[in-house]
Amino acid sequence: MTLSPSELSRYHRHLALPELGRGGQERLKSARVVVIGAGGLGSPAALYLAAAGVGTLGLVDCDRVEISNLQRQVLFDSAAVGRLKTEAARERLLALNPEISVVAHTLTLRAQNVLEVLRGYDLVLDGTDRLTTRYLVNDACVLLGKPLVSAAIHRFEGHAMTYLPGRGPCYRCLFPAAEEGVVASCAEAGVLGVLPGVLGAIQATEAVKILTGIGEPIVGRLVTYDALELRFLELPVTRRADCAVCGEHPTITAPRDAGEVCDPAALSQVRRLSATALRDLLASEPTAGGLALIDVREPHEFNTRHLLDARNIPLADLPRRLGELPAGRMPVFLCRSGRRSLTACALAVRAGIGTPAHLEGGLLAWAAAVDPQFDVAAG
Ligand SMILES: [Zn+2]
Question: Sheet holding 291-295: strands in order across?
Answer without folding.
Answer: 271-273, 357-359, 330-334, 291-295, 311-312
